[in-house]
Each structure stands twice: as C-alpha cells, then as structure tokens.
Amino acid sequence: MNFGLKKRFEIQEDGTIVARAGVQTNCSGIAAVRICITSTEGTGIVFSLSQKEFNNERLDDLVVSGKAIPEAYKTAVFKGAQDAYEESGLSKGIQFELIEALVHPIDARELRFIEVGKTAVNGWVEHRRCIR
Q1: The pLDDT value given to residue 63
Q2: In the beta sheet, which residues pair with residue 94?
Q3: For residues 103 and 64, what is the distance between their CA atoms, to the nearest angstrom?
Q4: Quick one: CA dihedral 106, 109, 112, 114, positive or negative?
Q5: Is 32:23 a contact under the CB 8 Å cutoff?
Q6: DSSP characters for 1-39?
Q7: 95-116 tens-digit pLDDT
Q8: Eight-state DSSP code of residue 85
Q9: How far is 30 from 32, CA to CA, in rounded Å?
C-alpha cells in the first residue's frame, strides 16, 4: 500500500469512516483508524470501542480491532476527537466508536493518532454540513 497517497478522510460503503495521518516513508509516523460516528440527542462526545470484526477490505496487514489497540493510541485518538468536537461548535452530541486501527510496530506515533481523531471528527462535521 502506498500510504502517503491515500485520502486522509473517506466514508466507506458500510458508513464507517477511515481517517489517516502521516507518510510511511519518513520518521514522523503513521496512523489510520476505522470509526463510526453517529449523532446523539445529548451534548458532548461519547467514546466506545467496537466489539465487531470487519471482514471487508482491510486498511493494512497491521490492523488491530477494538480492545486490542494499545491504550496509548486509543487515548490519543479520543483526545484528537475531543479537541475537534470542542472546536466544531456542535450543539448536538456524537457517539464515536473506534472499530480498528493501523498500528505499525515501528512507525506508529501518538501524535499521528491524535491527528486521525481530529481528521475523523472534522471530516464527519464537514460531510454533514455538505449534505444538508
């Protein structure tokens, strides 16, 4: 896979979102996640980890699901998502479900996982604004 040429934000046919950050050819790290975001009636952002296994096209051979994602990377994704939510000015709440993540044994970086959390929420907000 040529990671650097992939889109940073994509909505998949099944409604999940794939967000990516970084370029694998340098030392700044890479990250990618598959998530699901839905609107909620309340306010704020609620985080959860998926218990599902997806058998469709994988992000890479280094993808791990739900609870198997290392804690530091889960926390980083949620921090980025929280930051983006707070900056978005949304008045409704969202449910942010982390389904799976690309965790490269050498190139994974917390900073990139923060970035993909932000990319996912910002992309979702922009997409929702475009379809209204």
Answers
A1: 67
A2: 39, 45
A3: 7
A4: positive
A5: no
A6: --GGGS-SEEE-TTS-EEEEEE-TTSTT-EEEEEEEEEE
A7: 999 998 888 877 889 999 999 9
A8: H
A9: 7
